[in-house]
Amino acid sequence: xxxxxxxxxxxxxxxxxxxxxxxxxxxxxxxxxxxxxxxxxxxxxxxxxxxxxxxxxxxxxxxxxxxxxxxxxxxxxxxxxxxxxxxxxxxxxxxxxxxxxxxxxxxxxxxxxxxxxxxxxxxxxxxxxxxxxxxxxxxxxxxxxxxxxxxxxx
Length: 154
Known about the structure:
Elements: H1 4-33, H2 37-47, H3 54-61, H4 65-77, E1 81-86, E2 89-97, H5 99-121, H6 125-153
Antiparallel strand pairs: 1-2
């Protein structure tokens, strides 16, 4: 049985391969929908409820407001999203995924979601807790690394 160090090394080596496979999958889904991977990422952020704020979406995607506006224009032409008035402040806009296209997106993601769900179902509570902690910590670490890279270019 591998020791902790060997397992940590195996995980460190497996992570880039997992990320690469996931990127290839997302790129294939984007191609199928006729959008760029960045547009698909934006759609996922909106559809999953992360945010519907154009300013926050631009920040999460690492885009200027001008670049995000062009991205949003393309997404509207592809009928993936629409701009709607903010119910709390009608001077502001929100981005909403078009329900008629979400069924198509769900169908494209269903096989991978099913397979990953089957793998997660094999994990016990302790393993799932560790996985969530790793993913959450990894997200924060990646955010800090992005900020550090941005600081180095300014």
